[in-house]
Amino acid sequence: MIKKVYQMAAEERERIEKLIADYYVRQIFEQIADIRVFTLGYCTKEVMLQLKKQSAENRREMERVSDEYWEAIIAQDIPDEIHRRVQFHDCTVTELLTREEVLIRFDTRGGFTNINKLTLVAPEIIKQDGGIVGTYWLYQELYRIDNGYELHVLFDGENMPELIVRCVDILVEEE
User: Fold this and answer.
1) N or C: which end of the chain has fewer CB within 10 A?
2) Distance separating alpha carbons of residues 80 and 88, to the nearest angstrom
3) Are strands 117-121 and 169-173 parallel, antiparallel or unpaired?
């Protein structure tokens, strides 16, 4: 007869598995005799097998995180039309006005859109780092809130400035 003595919580199992994975990566690194030769693409068969296993584990983890991300995005129930309004990757911010509306103008030559004006209606600025004008729009996250949206933007620059704004609506136009 098998008697179950202890069942580990899922969080504890994940923590232990991460510790093991971190240790395993260190062990691989310690087996590399000369990192310069390794960077040229040479290693022992044993190291290569360990790296392939670690790579497969990393890929599975990235897929898990990506799946969770898309589930969260879908759960937000934000129309694609609204998501498309905040796609300014690699556009340069040429102007940022924060008054009764937040107005951002862009130089779109480096980006993937011709839309060069973004207006956030009835804004509540949660965070606004300095030095946004002249930087590139890198990444955004858009969330549904009770009366509209919350937009998080990360810009490229010396200190990676951020802008977080809650607003009632998001308007775009090509000037």
Assistant:
1) N
2) 15
3) antiparallel
